[in-house]
Amino acid sequence: MLACMPPDFAPAPPACDPRASTAAPAPTAPLSGRAAPVALREVGLRDGLQSIARTLPTATKLQWLRAAHAAGLREVEVGSFVPPRLMPQLADTQALVHEALRLPGLVVSVLVPNLKGAERALRSGAHAMLLPLSASQAHSLANLRKTPDDVVREIAEIRRLRDAAGSTCLLEVGLSTAFGCTIQGRVEPDEVLRLVRAALDAGADRVGLADTVGYADPRQVRELFERAFELTRPYDRAGEPALACGHFHDTRGLGLANVFAAWEAGVRRFDACTGGIGGCPHAPGASGNVATEDVAYLLASMGVPTGVDFDALMTLRRSLAGWLEGEPLHGHIWRAGLPRTMPARRREATAAEVAQ
Ligand SMILES: [Zn+2]
Fold this sequence. Notes:
Blueprint: H1 29-32, E1 39-42, H2 44-50, H3 58-70, E2 75-80, H4 93-100, E3 107-111, H5 115-124, E4 128-134, H6 137-144, H7 148-164, E5 170-176, H8 189-201, E6 206-211, H9 218-232, E7 243-248, H10 255-265, E8 269-272, H11 292-301, H12 310-323, H13 333-336, H14 344-347, H15 349-353
Parallel strand pairs: 1-2, 1-8, 2-3, 3-4, 4-5, 5-6, 6-7
Helix pairs in contact: 3-4, 3-12, 5-7, 7-8, 8-9, 9-10, 11-12
């Protein structure tokens, strides 16, 4: 077994064609209910830092990682297994995985750009690997030098490799540029949905939709997620939705509105970056993931549990401002703090309800 899972993290069942099963689709109501907890995956150590030229020392990244865990975040994307010469900022990913695996209850996730990266992820013992699949042909060629269908074939290879290794490392596919592309422009929803199905058929355990370049609007988000939920429901397993993540950038100020629209459509897990840092080196003008603290506030303000401790998250944000002095940080809630009218039980949130 190459990877070990935290006790509260159910491993994916073996590969099968869900459409061949006569069993009824797994019920999704308990997960999609409005009171259901929402998981936030901190992706600042990967999506955030990859867009910043300076390299943070490993010791500082570990402080960030531990502070995120202490603030109640239970999934962190700690880095990316890309060649270090392409992204020296993330060259210490292996060391971060190693340390992150010691934190109790933390799901340790890494980005992998290809089969080689997946091999390293499997060896590292990470709990989950995220493979980007661009819905835009032009973005896919610029980012990975492959067509989307080449990437789908690679997903199948990664799945075979994972199964042959006896690993339980979850294979998640993130559909990037799902709402538009700075290079290609419009990305057809039908093409996004075709690739979602192709990724699941190729063996991905779950998929997410990403607005890589900040083009999405809330109506578009709601409609595409609703269609995608309909399509992916037969692939749900043991009550876990196959469509399992929303990833939004706040490039044009609609990040939180898009999170809300996706939540309304049933999404219960989001990527976010403390301080709203982030971007994509091959998507000119793209900047800023939604800020973790703002997403946590949005959800807590509606009484949705996230497990996040605001005070601890604000402390992390202040530290981050020091570590990244001179870099623009974004977000709103840090300026004004929580409103006095926010009930203490919501402020504390949430931590008790999803304590792990
Ligand atoms: Zn991103």
